[in-house]
Design goal:
Blueprint lengths: L3 E6 L3 H6 L15 E6 L5 E11 L2 E6 L4 H12 L5 E4 L14 H6 L37 H9 L5 E8 L10 E3 L5 E11 L2 E9 L6 E2 L6 E2 L1
Antiparallel strand pairs: 1-4, 1-5, 2-3, 3-4, 6-9, 6-11, 7-8, 7-10, 8-9
């Protein structure tokens, strides 16, 4: 769930985020949230977030509370060289409608949420971010991970993607749990899940060629 708000503010905030996030900051409209990601140099997603421009010197990042330390640590490492600050925002001062979106809604809509267990583990396109309007810009200038992400987009072949499935059990899963094929080979990972009555909805990365995804326990996943 995206339930924590950080603010990036200062005269250098816009340029700073343009070099950090996969979306094009210059395309943002005031107070209109955009799903985006921040990647490492290998193109693996450190975190996903909704970014909202309040003005040219103030941007909100809505992230999972469990990712706060990872996000702040990463951004502050680079922000010290820019004219901007990263601060946690008091929930009473700011509010985003995205905080009200529950886990099930995000899962059903194919919105990938990165948690500590999956941070820096998965390439951006495997999360279908290139299919979500504005989440990745292939026309903007340099940003962290751009070389790998662009190479895969223009010259590579995507072998894994994110899909929605369900299992007839209410046993909790964990982000990062292995997805295997019928030969027990690891072919992906759980991204997010929620128990829904007598079943568990699972958003997971799977090898495109794998037609029989399973949990590591052997439980088959039915595609939705």
């Amino acid at each position: 769930m995206f339930d924590c708000i950080l603010e990036c503010n200062g005269v250098g905030a816009k340029a700073f985020l343009q070099g950090q996030l996969t979306c094009n900051i210059n395309d943002l409209k005031e107070n209109q949230p955009q799903l985006t990601a921040c990647c490492n140099l290998q193109g693996r997603v450190i975190f996903t977030a909704y970014v909202t421009m309040q003005n040219d010197q103030s941007f909100l990042l809505v992230i999972p509370e469990s990712m706060k330390n990872i996000v702040v640590s990463h951004l502050e490492k680079y922000a010290r060289f820019s004219k901007c600050d990263i601060v946690e925002t008091d929930m009473g001062e700011r509010h985003s409608p995205l905080q009200e979106a529950n886990v099930k809604t995000n899962i059903m809509n194919g919105i990938p949420t990165i948690y500590p267990e999956t941070s820096e583990q998965i390439i951006a396109q495997r999360l279908n971010l290139h299919l979500i309007k504005g989440a990745i810009s292939f026309k903007k200038g340099c940003y962290l991970g751009q070389e790998i992400i662009s190479r895969l987009h223009f010259k590579g072949k995507l072998k894994h993607h994110m899909i929605l499935g369900e299992v007839p059990t209410t046993t909790p899963l964990k982000p990062g749990d292995n997805i295997v094929d019928d030969q027990k080979n690891s072919v992906g990972a759980v991204i997010d899940f929620c128990v829904d009555q007598n079943r568990t909805l699972v958003l997971f990365v799977n090898a495109i060629e794998n037609k029989q995804p399973q949990l590591e326990s052997g439980q088959a996943i039915t595609l939705c």
